[in-house]
Specification:
heterodimer; A: alpha/beta; Arc Repressor Mutant, subunit A; five-stranded mixed β-sheet; 10 helices; flat; B: alpha/beta; seven-stranded mixed β-sheet; 20 helices
Chain lengths: 277, 703
Amino acid sequence: MSTRRLAQEQPESFVFSDTSTKDVEFWLNKFPEARKQSAVIPLLWLAQEQEGWVTLAAMESIAERLDMPKIRVMEVATFYTMFNLAPVGEHHIQICGTTPCMLRGANDLKAVCESRIGKKGATSEDGRFTWSEVECLGACCNAPMAQISNKDGHHYFEDLTAETLEALLDKLGAGGAVKAGPQNGRQTSAPEGGPETLKDESLFDGSRGKKLKSIPNAPQSSPEPSPEKKGHPKETTRDSQEKARTDSQQTPDPETKEDKKAVKAKDADGKKGGGDA
Amino acid sequence: MSEDLRKLVVDGEEVEVPADLTLLQACETAGREIPRFCYHERLSIAGNCRMCLVEVVGAPKPVASCAQQVRDLRPGPNGEPPKVNTATPLVDKAREGVMEFLLINHPLDCPICDQGGECDLQDQALAYGRSFTRYEENKRAVEEKYMGPLIKTIMTRCIQCTRCVRFAAEVAGVEEFGMLNRGEDAEITTYLEKAATSELSGNVIDLCPVGALTSKPYAFEARPWELRKTESVDVMDAMGCAIRVDARGTEVMRILPRIYEEVNEEWISDKTRFVWDGLRRQRLDKPYVRKDGRLTPVDWTEALDVAAQKLAGNPEGIGAIVGDLADAEGMKALKDLMDGLGVKSIDCRQDGMILGEGPRQSWLFNSTFMGVEDADHLLLIGANPRYEASVLNARIRKAWLHNDLKVSVIGEPVDLTYDYDHLGETAADLDKALSGDLAKAFKEGGRGMIVLGAGALNRPDSAAILNRVAQFAKDAGLNQSGDDAWNGFNVLHTAASRVGGLDLGLVPGEGGRNVAGMLEAARAGEIETVLLHGADELRDNDFGDAFVIYVGSHGDEGAHKADVILPSAAYTEKSGTWVNAEGRVQTGARAVYPKGDAKEDWAIYRALSDRLSRTLPYDTLGQLRAKLIEDHPSFGGIDYAPGAADLDKLDFDALGEKGDLSAEPFRSAVTDFYMTNPIARASRVMAECSAVKDEAPRMEAAE
């Protein structure tokens, strides 16, 4: 990443629009008067939502509003890379370049952007597209992916290939509607081509269920304690199990150990039941 | 607050330290040296350089000792004091690792770096670093930033300690330094790369542990080991900041602060620091006599003869005016000479200040500069400490930040870097301001301080102002005697020579004239000879037909008017005594010899006295000083500020006289901070600073 600088050409002034003003009030109301500087990030974000980027005038107006030195606002705006310090195109394509996406082909996506839009960070000649590389956006299971920010908001476009990205850019360029989410027909992050596990109908129709003799973890003060509980009233609840474990660490107690074994066996049974499906 | 002491074992040695010390301070108490870059005693703790890592026994990792307090350490299982190690292999390895990281992006340009030889990074790399590098990638490069005419930047050398950012925000109170971007791209800059506007900005050069911020005027001039270091006293304002004058050969190469907790902590103003190029320009290096309307260089004999001939005239027709930078020795010799001649018209208050009669306490900064930190209320009248005593202003800001000092101002509504109650702009506002809630607050709120600026004491209604303020001080019970003695009456002078001059009694004797009177008499022809002892800031410069003898170091206002010029030494060129506003007597040593034929002031008067057959009774500086202390015992207490001692000598009823207060607004005595004296006016750097200050803000965004 190259050093981020403020744009050379800056607008003269900045005012929050009527809709933004409401949000500004909302954020300012969240903090006590003496701590209103806490609202600096939300306010910078609102300014970016409104203008598409954070202008110098916006920084200064926010500094004045929050009663803080201008340089402190600028420090925040330059620290967080999601604040655009220069104008961006109508569609801001943010390609994730972090390891999982890179391994799954983010470099191909970057090549597409480079050929269609220009160098990293550049805006296309028609002003419609800007592309930049960002760090992990947390959608690694659908790598490679990109976030596209435009007037509709910020949307993830996942499972991209060079071809689907091209198609996407074509559509956006033509002003057409695009569908956010995985671009390979996959349902969210479910396995490609439909589910592969948990297909057994019996898992879902209730036929595998066994009637419970007693409700696990039921309160001890139940009027009719189960026969198991009579012998060792403590052992059946999880709390008492844990207690037994800690007790056993200090004074080994053969009895509790045996009980634990029994519990383990029970657990194993339960697992087996689940594993069959 | 009773002190919470904790025991601590540092490298096997048990020490007992206050719980709120940091581990770094505790280790220093135990005599261990902890390397550091970002930590600085007078700044907040950042903890971002990691150089001060130490081993706390039981902690999983090395600990940044600057950021952890002694009270945060837990005792051992059986209550043993916590152990800290500073010299174990773990610590060595940690330091080596940190140093290796710091040096990854630090250029290896020590041979062309001005910091070389006094660089923390250089020294610590030698002491704690590896002997070679394992780093083979490219180093980062950072663009230079413009920070004004004083600070040169080589930002590639920056190690992001953020000392400069913290200094600007905390001490200077001008939040214009910041660290932009993040990670590898982080860079220090001023807002929009405008010139730093603080009058204390030069201190970031000292604070910078590497060569990223260096002195622009001093760039590539000298190496620290070539310089002869002389401890001296600053004369740019009346604070008498402790300075170190670094000289090579015959030239002063730079001026640095010395640590003097009571006066300047370790800061000095930009004027003090960068005025040294003014010591090389506009210098008077030979005697001159005006012949046919033109000043012509002559030898000492001729110049002294001409001057002596004039001074031999009627003492009624002679006047002497002393300027702002004079040392006590020169003033004493002048005073003795004039007394010998019977001259009564002598004055050291070229701005027309009214103080000078009565006890010494009436013209001192009695609370002392350090006292600002003990005060609860501060009232500034006609003073702008930011430019009249910049380092004191930093101390007021410190007290305002940390001790909840409440500041009120009657005077110009200027930015003092701290909040204050503005109670009015004119003397006429005094009555209202002093009678209201303020008096109540002063009475009830512990220790109060009133500071009368020089701007309030040189007006036609100054006597009335002084009277009114003194009455207020009396009513508010400003002065407290006893164990907790406190004198809250303060005068903030702007001239380094003023307190010394007043202590020496350089005020008109019986039948003598003050400065305004002398000038008037000169124009009326009643005064025929005026001796200017470095007096260049006279408000009114018309001497009529009087013969002007100028004794001074720079070709400034006074020299232009002169008929005889007797060149003397500047403050770095003589061993002198100055008394600061607190009444603290300080001596400075000679760093270089006077320029050309120039002589020390006292020697000039000694030579004149010989020609006038009124030979002064001293032949050496030592004899002069002995006489000085004999006649004026206060000069014997070197580095001593009286503070609240002799509190009862100050009689508030005797100060000033009743009169009407005018509606004229107060004006600070300093109009252009960078141009207050002949040395500063001769300095190119100061001229540039003055020009930059007035320049409209540059709206140039970084590229």
